[in-house]
Amino acid sequence: MPITRLTHSPSYTTFREFLLSNKPVLLPPGVVEGSPACQLWFNSDNPTSFDFDYLRNEYGSERVTAVDCKTWESIETSFERVLEQWEAVEAAGVYDWHLPLKIHEAGRDVAKELCGVPEVCFDDWMNGYYCKETSDDFRFVYLGGPSTFTPVHRDVYCSYSISTNIYGRKRWTLFPPVCSPKLGLLLKAAERIDCVLDVREWDEETRLEFVEMGAEVVIQEVGETIFIPSGWYHQVENLGLTFSLNHNWANSHNISLLYTSMTLEVTLVRESISDVKELLNLSSCHSAAVQYQKECPEPKIV
Q1: How many Å apart are CA 81 and CA 8, to the nearest integer?
Q2: Contact of 95 with 65, CB cutoff 8 Å
């Protein structure tokens, strides 16, 4: 069944139907239309091209993680260096840039400088906690040159996710949860040979097998916001230079899925260290004994 593409900004009641059914949906440009990022990041005389001078002056010194999508090697560098690569038409991707948090920590208003959180995502139990209790959050900026992509994955803790294309277009391959067991085997096989899972490398038989299970390809246009439900694996390809704002969140509608995801991760960690469990226990006991001897030495006999 093709993904729903809404033509008007939805009320929370309408959007909640997609939360409850755990189905993807594309929201129209009106959701973020007029946001500062849609205006400040681009040339006033050519709104279809980045204002590299503005970006360099405002954020050039920011440290970002740049990824080479051919080798999947990542390096920490300045945003200015990434801009230089884009101006030279070199493919480089910036992943998981916590720019909203950086702006907030600097005492500036994220909504006035970048973009506010859409109202349909206000019921957010993840970012409220993390922003208060840690120095982390789940709001990211993704920037990618031509041919950059994110291989098959699902979002942190199986949380909800929205991704807004401020600039550029993306191709999404979406996999409903029924595909997860088969994808899990393919992901493990790729991990064993130190590779990522890229749907573009599949043969026709594999592709059709997932299509029959409900996988679909969606083109996200500039300005649109895509909602990715809990537990849906997906791959994302940038069709040219792109700039998107991503937001992961959770609430009462998917909290049980987050719990299941976290318990599964604990189980997988236990299995992965099962062969050294006894060694770890012995090491832990030895460390505890050494610490006890330091804190509670035997009394000296005079």
Answers
A1: 39
A2: yes
Dist CA 264 CA 280 (whole Å): 21
For 173-197, b where at least 16 C-beta lie within 10 A, e where not — what string? Answer: bbbbbebbeebeebbeebeeeeebb
CB atoms within 10 A of CB 29: 16
In this prediction, residue 99 carries a pLDDT of: 93
- Model confidence, pTM: 0.86
Kind and range of the H or E run holding 220? strand 216-220
Work out the widest C-alpha separation in the chain, in whole angstroms.
90
Q: What is the pLDDT of residues 94-105, one digit of tens each?
A: 988 999 999 988
28 is written with which tokens? Answer: 């129209």
Residues sharing a CB contact under 8 Å with residue 99, sequence separation 6 or more, in sequence order? 59, 62, 114, 140, 141
Residues with pLDDT less than 50, the chain: 292, 299-302
